[in-house]
Task: structure prediction
Amino acid sequence: MSTTDARVEVVHPTSVVREAGNLLRAAWSPPSLHYSDEFLAWQFGFPGGEGALAATAWDAASERLIGFAAVTPRRMRVNDWSGVVYALSYVAAHPSARGRGIAAAVYAALLEAVDAAACPVLTFAQPQSGGERAIRRAYPAAGYRLYPLGECQAWGAMVRPSSAGETASCQVGSVAEMSASLGRVLKAQSARDILWADPDDAELVHYARDPRTRRALLCGPHDNSTTAAVASLAVAAEMNTARGVERTILLECLAASDARAADLRAMVQQAATTISPAGRTALVTIPNATGLDPTVARAAGLRRLPSSFVSYWCVGPLAQARLGLEVPTGTNAEII
Ligand SMILES: CC(C)(COP(=O)(O)OP(=O)(O)OC[C@H]1O[C@@H](n2cnc3c(N)ncnc32)[C@H](O)[C@@H]1OP(=O)(O)O)[C@@H](O)C(=O)NCCC(=O)NCCS
Result:
């Protein structure tokens, strides 16, 4: 494989939002996430650690961007360790430049830069895809240990928006307004060996700036507790489909280890009622239901959806030496 006709550079991705958007939209066929420039600019602005980083490959003759990958920081914790994890995503090679090592070259440059920051990496892929194959090649080639965390279990339901009374036990509001209670429920998740999303205030403030509709949902509490039993960050994600850009409701970073079916049902109803465009029946999906008891999910009216993502925990040599990280077996992190 020759990549001599491409120039590879590590940059801050906010400097190449327009080029990255054009490349990602050309690289993915529907159905896929819609990579609008606004969405990418927001993703590349996540705070934490040394901020986002990207590797870019430019065609030597045309100076067009033909390869891209980026990491954005997220605060996470597993057992006694907590810190910044780099979520690696936005990997793309232009359709006209595939199969000649562009993705491999971009990975090599990005993984070297990421390990210099001593941060572990979390990444997602569709099972058995070219993307997963590239992951399995790229990380070991860069000296990383690659730990498969398995399938992200997806659950969902078609939900009709309901009257306020039916969702009274579920609070909905802006992530910024509800950040303190949201943070508390996310922190209360305690199952061992799970990599839990653990956003700090700065990260929650950034979530509140999502250019798509993004809401905090909190259901419960019950008994004598003052802390809600279930929480999630809900978003009206934009999907690129054969019919154009469509919205779908995703409940991300689900914290549901104390969930009762009634709480979960109220949360799903509340998401459809407040986020569904035009008040129509909507598919509400929990793309990554780690920590959710399947019996509770079924009793709340949710059904298992075919799982479409696997995740990997990836630790470079410097991260390993400096941090001696725990190895998780699953994660409730947002799939990006
Ligand atoms: C996946 C993608 C980034 C690969 O880009 P690329 O520049 O063609 O990949 P490379 O030439 O660097 O190949 C890297 C490795 O992945 C493998 N690979 C890449 N695409 C593959 C495919 N479609 N099927 C099987 N293997 C594939 C290559 O064979 C190579 O492994 P090898 O060294 O064992 O031969 C590109 O096809 C793409 O942009 N796809 C759409 C977006 C996407 O799926 N992104 C990844 C999300 S996880």
Q: What stands out?
A: The mean pLDDT is 92.
